[in-house]
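Handover notes (outgoing to incoming on-call)

Open items:
1. FYVE-type domain-containing protein: sequence verified, structure written out, both below. Nothing else pending on this one.
2. Nothing else urgent.
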Amino acid sequence: MADLVSYGNAQRDIDQALIALKKGAQLLKYGRKGKPKFCPFRLSNDETSLIWISSSGERSLKLASVSKIIPGQRTAVFQRYLRPEKDYLSFSLIYNNGKRSLDLICKDKVEAEVWIAGLKALISSGQGGRSKIDGWSDGGLYLDDGRDLTSNSASDSSVSATRDISSPEVFVSFNPNTSPKSLRPENSFHSERSHVASEGTNMDVKGSGSYAFRVSVSSAPSTSSHGSAPDDYDALGDVYIWGEVICDNAVKVVADKNANYLSMRADVLLPRPLEYNVVLDVHHVACGVKHAALVTRQGEVFTWGEESGGRLGHGVGKDVIQPRLVESLAVTSVDFVACGEFHTCAVTMAGELYTWGDGTHNAGLLGHGTDVSHWIPKRISGPLEGLQVASVTCGPWHTALITSTGQLFTFGDGTFGVLGHGDRESVPYPKEVESLSGLRTIAVACGVWHTAAIVEVIVSQSSASVSSGKLFTWGDGDKNRLGHGDKEPRLKPTCVPALIDYNFHKVACGHSLTVGLTTSGHVFTMGSTVYGQLGNPCADGKIPSLVEDKLSGECVEEIACGAYHVAVLTSRNEVYTWGKGANGRLGHGDVEDRKTPTLVEGLKDRHVKFIACGSNYSAAICLHKWVSGAEQSQCSACRQAFGFTRKRHNCYNCGLVHCHSCSSKKALGAALAPNPGKPYRVCDSCFAKLNKVSEAGNNRRNSVPRLSGENKDRLDKAEIRLSKSATPNMDLIKQLDSKAAKQGKKNRNILGGSLCSSTFFVSVERCCFV
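FYVE-type domain-containing protein structure tokens:
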């Protein structure tokens, strides 16, 4: 295995590995008695112990007591049930002065790399930086005299891997050699170097910069033991998404005003985990129209979605299926991000504002004073010099920001007076809203052609004066979105008179909607009644209305708006949505509109900490769910308790515990199968995934390739779009199939004969936002 520390940004790679270990995984544990068993393992939050759940309850191993890590199946415990084909996935932790070993097998090579790299870093740091992983980075396997841990024979395996981590798909080629090889006698200090050692591994990693060497792990929910629920500070953040999302194995025909075209999008009707190429501890997420961004707790920015004008910030004109690091911001620590339709903004911990994206709309959208597009983040200086930016929000055509002193600045397209400067002029750089000068703005939100802000004003109450947050709106007054009881535009911030008695602290804007949240947890909406987006069937939209129904008695803590839908988060960590239901953006398992707040059942058992809405999709940050010992007594799928008539069964692909009803099928190619050539029991979810992989393999063997995977990526977008004459959909598909067939034939001519029979390729299916 290539040592992660020797590539790219070493500390970042180790941080990624440790996050993966904290999220945990199902590993196959060998014992001194009985057969190997699946157990959920995880690293403790303080990084001092390895914790797992066995049949006897929760167990832990102090890493300070571990003397070394031995790769492969070298110990006497492993020799009881030797699996040579899993040698490169196996490792042992030697502890208790060399008298005991913890022997584990991982699901795949990537998982093995992550666990060994993370544990290596922790154990090495405990010894002043001296590496104690043997057989991987030093001269060979070191054995102390009298140590009875290694049998007289062990299996070696040579591993050859080629990965292209910079692309959404990962191709892995293995060439296992399972012939046993004798070790030197026990009284010898050194054994022969294992073929799994670093110099015996041929790994070619393609990509650019440190991104090419990041740990590649799926973020699908893993189960790991935890004796008691972690507090919010220590808990890891996972992202869940729903609505219209990008999926690399789905193609559908989409109609717009000008033409029909093929879109790699799928409607996700229920919240599901966002999948990453790397394991991330998410602190903040922002959603645009066709792209999104997130910030990790380590201050890194990741973006993904459809590239247009540089809004992803990667410096290349390529769509990104899964979150990818914005490398130019890796040298600074980012606090949070905001996404518009054509651009993206980021605020650093130091209060600096960076923007990037399409600046060619003659609106000064990026705030740099020009109409130049920026494909990588660029810091805004000029009017903001000497000021610290506290927050930023983006609309499609304008941006608003608040400084640490409460000053409000806006820039971009000034149509309808949306910038609040008293005119309709565009401003290509941040300009303070003078009518609010001297007042403290605490929150701001941008719609398409209107803006809303919460401004602190001094209110006299009896003999005392207190500050209270008042809702101000300005811009286009059509559809009553400003809440002033008319449809007239406002060129300057104007307080909403109907809400003057309430104390607000948060605000959100949709296309024709404004939502305000009071400090007492009440939600008010104003604007168009279309799709039931006001959340109050009795409201006519002319004046602000209180959203009650199922929110009555609830204390709302967060609000978010899409184009025509709303999401709120309550103090009980429950998410309610309403409004337009197309594409499944409400998360209720259908595409129906909701006129009143409706609980998102799919997140009911999740600890939700933050919500965000894009134009036609939604996202939530949930604290990573640890699996306690009690939950091991339930089926991972149907949640029915195990008992005399409902027995436990492990899935040989994901390793989770299921009942017979949820794991009655068998499939070839399960990741943890003892014999890859035989079918083994898997859960229903893994059965479907393995079937897709099998079908994809069969399709690749067909004489005429269909429009899928690699061929789709090679088709030019200009050829995908239809002309305004609107060619019928079937004709379009035939044209694309013909193009794909020609491209596939060309690829076979290039690649023909270059692949030996001992090499196989695994295409990892991934689906994620946008």
